[in-house]
Amino acid sequence: MTPHDSSKVTGGRKVVMENRKKILVVDDEADLVTGVSRLLERAGFEVFSASNGDEALMRVKDIGWFDLIILDVRMPVLDGYDTLSILRDTGYGDIPVILLTGGFSPEDVARGHDRGAVLYMRKPFAPSCLANAVAYALNAKAGAQAV
Fold this sequence. Notes:
This protein is α/β, with parallel strands linked by helices. The protein has one domain (20-146): Response regulator (Rossmann fold), CATH 3.40.50.2300. Helix content is 37%, strand content 22%. The protein is built from 5 helices and 8 strands; from the N terminus they run βββαβαβαβαβαβ. The strands form 2 sheets. A 6-stranded parallel β-sheet has the order 4-3-5-6-7-8, sandwiched between helices. A two-stranded antiparallel sheet has the order 1-2. β7, α5 and β8 form a beta-alpha-beta unit. The termini are far apart. The model is unreliable at 1-17 (pLDDT under 50).
């Protein structure tokens, strides 16, 4: 099975399951994670969550692949920038990442871009903005854009 193959073998037969894109939502604000997760699940995505960068790295290792990671910048234990750097250094550089933050400066956007983020979004954001960002990120290569 490839990282994107959601089929499984049951009783000697290959059963093809619904191939939903996997998204990891990482933020230390539980309400934000819940809201974003619900929005994404209603849109048909399979959603996983983590409350800090260290947890996110464990999820990536356990699951093996995500189609997108939505990653808060400011978190305890391991912040978003360091988490993104570790992802890039450990073979997960092809996973597009949207960085989220309450603060916003050209330096922040450059820092995210340097680490390979696809987009940089300011919190709070409208659900429609998140939907557009997710659609864009799933089709984009690394190179941060501010939204």
